[in-house]
Write a structure and sequence with these properties.
Largest sheet: 7 strands, mixed
Structural class: alpha/beta
Strand order of the largest sheet: 5-2-1-6-7-8-9
Distance between the termini: 64 Å
Helix content: 10-25%
Number of domains: 2
Radius of gyration: 24 Å
CATH class of the largest domain: Alpha Beta
Strand content: 25-35%
CATH superfamily of the largest domain: Formyl transferase, N-terminal domain
CATH architecture of the largest domain: 3-Layer(aba) Sandwich
Number of helices: 8
């Protein structure tokens, strides 16, 4: 007999697992729970979640409680009698009385190797912090923040140039079969949940606007990790002539940096006379000096209210003068 599953999820990260479960004869999705329709995008138009649209496309009913802790929500879960609830990037904390309903528990797919990077933005912070390896973990949720016992995991390397959206897409795809494997093993009693070691836990809080602001005193490698990790929002940004601009670029080590205006081809570090953030048009590249040895090869710039242009177009249009810089 197929396991009765309620699926709780909201963004696109949850879709591969949702679609995978639909295709497996071992599972019957008896209900879908997602966040209420909310304003999204620049125009702030009311839009449905990715999970709601996918559920409607296959004729599944969708429940969208404003607060999942309500008595109405409790009645909904009790009435459907799920064997397990799969919850992926849903967006609300689950109460203990809801957790107690399904015999196999609430099974979460989290985009990190728990207990590292508990929280809302594990993919972003793993890249920002320069991690080389990450993965996805299935866990049985408890009343804490991603603190429940772990079940299975999938480990993968982070690509040197991989951005947060690219890595998230890979992890979502890898997590889909892991979720079904976890449910099957739980139903057969073949998994022993493993308690997390809280002393090894790290946090991945939601990104804020200020997490995108570039500190040019950092190394080019750290700045590049930030550029990759804060996509698509808030994006890496700095100031130029008093206006905010989005920045894209790649790190350069000192031997890769040509001399400009008689300066030595070395950037930053002790004794450097070139302030961090200084922009130099050194064809065929536009270079931004960093506070440690090396620099950032500028690739694209997007000024406020304008379209994105490549670095040389920016340098030519701005008619850079010696000593001009990014930053306040």
């Amino acid at each position: 007999m197929a396991l009765r599953i309620i699926f709780c999820g909201t963004p696109g990260f949850a879709l591969p697992s949702f679609k995978h479960l639909l295709d497996q004869p071992d599972f019957e999705i008896v209900g879908v729970v997602t966040q209420p329709d909310r304003p999204r995008g620049r125009g702030q138009q009311i839009r449905s979640s990715a999970v709601k649209e996918a559920a409607f496309s296959v004729g599944l009913p969708v429940y969208q409680p404003e607060k999942i802790k309500s008595d109405e929500s409790y009645d909904y879960f009790r009435r459907l009698k799920p064997d397990a609830v799969v919850i992926i990037a849903y967006g609300q904390i689950i109460s203990e009385r809801l957790i107690a309903i399904p015999p196999l528990g609430w099974i979460n797919l989290h985009a990190s190797l728990l207990p590292k990077y508990r929280g809302a933005a594990p993919v972003n912070w793993a890249i920002i912090n320069g991690e080389r390896v990450t993965g996805v973990t299935t866990m049985r949720i408890d009343a804490g923040l991603d603190s429940g016992p772990t079940l299975l995991e999938h480990v993968t390397e982070i690509g040197q140039d991989e951005t947060a959206p690219e890595l998230a897409a890979r992890l979502a795809a890898a997590g889909a079969p892991l979720v079904s494997k976890t449910l099957q093993a739980l139903s057969r009693g073949e998994i022993t949940p493993v308690a997390q070691d809280p002393s090894k836990a790290t946090l991945a809080p939601p990104l804020t606007k200020q997490d995108g602001r570039i500190d040019w005193a950092r190394s080019p490698e750290r700045i590049y990790n930030q550029i990759r990790g804060v996509q698509p929002w808030p994006g890496a940004f700095s100031e130029f002539r008093g206006k905010q601009c989005r920045i894209w670029g790649k790190p350069l080590s000192p031997p890769q940096i040509p001399a400009a205006s008689g300066r030595e081809p070395v950037s930053g570090g002790p004794g450097s006379k070139v302030p961090p953030g200084t922009i130099e048009n050194v064809p065929p590249m536009v270079l931004v000096r960093c506070g440690e040895r090396g620099g950032l090869r500028l690739e694209f710039v997007q000024m406020e209210g304008r379209k994105r242009i490549n670095a040389q177009e920016f340098a030519n249009g701005a008619r850079l003068t010696p000593g001009e810089h990014f930053g306040a």
